[in-house]
Automatic annotation (TrEMBL), chain A:
<dbReference type="GO" id="GO:0044272">
    <property type="term" value="P:sulfur compound biosynthetic process"/>
</dbReference>
<comment type="subunit">
    <text>Heterotetramer of the KorA, KorB, KorC and KorD subunits.</text>
</comment>
<dbReference type="InterPro" id="IPR009014">
    <property type="entry name" value="Transketo_C/PFOR_II"/>
</dbReference>
<dbReference type="InterPro" id="IPR033412">
    <property type="entry name" value="PFOR_II"/>
</dbReference>
<protein>
    <recommendedName>
        <fullName>2-oxoglutarate synthase subunit KorA</fullName>
        <ecNumber>1.2.7.3</ecNumber>
    </recommendedName>
</protein>
<dbReference type="GO" id="GO:0006979">
    <property type="term" value="P:response to oxidative stress"/>
</dbReference>
<dbReference type="GO" id="GO:0047553">
    <property type="term" value="F:2-oxoglutarate synthase activity"/>
</dbReference>
<dbReference type="InterPro" id="IPR029061">
    <property type="entry name" value="THDP-binding"/>
</dbReference>
<dbReference type="InterPro" id="IPR050722">
    <property type="entry name" value="Pyruvate:ferred/Flavod_OxRd"/>
</dbReference>
Automatic annotation (TrEMBL), chain B:
<dbReference type="Pfam" id="PF02775">
    <property type="entry name" value="TPP_enzyme_C"/>
</dbReference>
<keyword id="KW-0560">Oxidoreductase</keyword>
<dbReference type="GO" id="GO:0016625">
    <property type="term" value="F:oxidoreductase activity, acting on the aldehyde or oxo group of donors, iron-sulfur protein as acceptor"/>
</dbReference>
<protein>
    <submittedName>
        <fullName>2-oxoglutarate ferredoxin oxidoreductase subunit beta 1</fullName>
    </submittedName>
</protein>
<feature type="domain" description="Thiamine pyrophosphate enzyme TPP-binding">
    <location>
        <begin position="56"/>
        <end position="203"/>
    </location>
</feature>
<dbReference type="InterPro" id="IPR051457">
    <property type="entry name" value="2-oxoacid:Fd_oxidoreductase"/>
</dbReference>
<dbReference type="InterPro" id="IPR011766">
    <property type="entry name" value="TPP_enzyme_TPP-bd"/>
</dbReference>
<dbReference type="GO" id="GO:0006082">
    <property type="term" value="P:organic acid metabolic process"/>
</dbReference>
<dbReference type="GO" id="GO:0030976">
    <property type="term" value="F:thiamine pyrophosphate binding"/>
</dbReference>
Amino acid sequence: MRYPFPVGKSDFIQGDEAIARAAILAGCRFYAGYPITPASEIFEAMALYMPLVDGVSIQMEDEIASIAAIIGASWAGAKAMTATSGPGFSLMQENIGYAVMTETPIVVVDVQRGGPSTGQPTLAAQGDIMQAIWGTHGDHSLIVLSPSTVQEAFDLTIRAFNLAEKYRTPVVLLTDAEIAHMRERVYIPRPEEIELVERKLPANEEEAKFPFGDLHGDGVPPMPIFGKGYKTYVTGLTHDERGRPRTVEAEVHERLIRRIIGKIENNKHDIITYNTFELDDAEIAIISTGIVSRSGVRAVKILREKGIKAGLLKLNTIWPFDFDMIEELAERVRKIYVPEMNLGQLYHLVKEGANGKAEVELIPKIGGEVHTPMEIVERVVG
Amino acid sequence: MYLKSAYDIRDKYLRKDMLPTIFCPGCGIGSALQYTLRAIDDLGLNPDEIVWVSGIGCSSRVPGFVNFDGLHTTHGRALAFATGIKLANPNLKIIAFMGDGDAAAIGGNHFIHAIRRNLDVTVILINNFTYGMTGGQVAPTALKGLRGTTAPYGQFENPFDIADLAVSAGANYVARWSVFNYLQGINSIKKALSKEGFTLVEFLSPCPISFGRRNRMKTAPELLRWYQKITVPLAKAKKMPPEELEGKIVIGEFVDRDRPGLVREYEAYKRRAKKMMGWEE
């Protein structure tokens, strides 16, 4: 396999470019999108690379069509991705719900920008945290990942495909304009250095009859892709294990939805990853995600120099959320600070997790700039 | 033309555990479905290589009743999903079963762009001038004066002529019949399924319960007579003055051409890309 970019060495590239290259190395061969700042460079890179690796890159008429096309492509057997920003992400929400309901592995990149509506197209924000977790309708669960460096944007894109395939679910890669447009050194591995997960396919005709049944006790049914002669019917209606619509029976709906949520919740320790910095003996914890975490690291260093035992918890997975871990942390620290580039979204999850065991204080910032380390330090020092 | 018995077609292609269908007495969707299955049968197509796609509404439940791979999607989006399926696996033949609301209202943009791209898909479009499943609201195809629950005094907007729209947007094959034109219907579907690119067969289809009841045509025979009255064959329409065609619907075969389909265009694009990058073998 020949790649249209160098592999096995480092390159100095933007976050958006890193996401596109990672997707191709993860095996993505179908990309559908609609241009929107600050996500367009992902599309432009895919448009350049995809025909060369015998994949498809197509500019759809809007974001709704884009996510619809990648769901269709996934059922035809392809690893598929789209990328957008907040306003386009809103348009995709119904079909994200459809992908959850039909257990379709797809990757949706949301490069956040200042909102609401068209807002600040060229500036960064973290305003879509709630939208990524709760934006679609009904009871559901999915996976949301958040990188804080260009290298992490690369690594988490590969992870996003692996998790989507493993759990047959949509995965949202939630990044922001700052990382999207920032250039950093990224190691682009050779294909043999990357561990890839492929979706479970039915082992035989019998398994293929139950595309929505818990055949292996892990909540993730094998996915009978189209064209293999299995004659699979896929519907967004409430359906039984065989995929037949059963819309008025409460127990069928409950069994289906609880399994779909359960396959994420029951595996949350496999899905959730995080990094800590100076957290072991900390009395003050800073919890953050994405670009803000980088100011958080510096803030911790400054606070330690001032004799304040501060530490940082950087969440790489935003959903599923480890409420228990936050509660344990809250039991051993005096106070938790949540700096984020919005007026309080991650804050609500952290506060619920802390469960009153420690005071939780929001450090919000909007307008397009990342918190400076001193802004965090000053709030902690008071 | 020899026709197999309807029982043979049913037994060969329908999912028996899904029967009976949800369709009301007098509904025309079953007829359009039967014509489609007969066309598949006559052409000897392999069911394993066909995927049925649909959006939301009565006609969109069809993929659930036929024993093929099928994707029952969100309202109006069938053709957008189909784009992904077809480009990800060009060996699959795609049949999109859609309603008038699905195609011309919420899915209008996907519809015209799928045609512009010449997506390789055969659309079987059920036009009954109404939103049947949600209880009889007017559709963008409803002729002026027709009633629906959201136009209780008669539709005041101009209707879309879907076939006309498809011809203008660039479809390779477009035909319109009422479901009572069964031989023409089957032949058109066979032609549509045999061509590359975007092909459309539109059926004017009776909906006695949601539509007919509000428009003084409570039974299928009453709707049949109405369709006979309002439809004009293409050859005859060409000789009629415009004022006589007011409120009428032209039926027939509107276009039959062979522009390259999206799959062929993309294959050529990939070769061009590799050539431009010096990647030729």
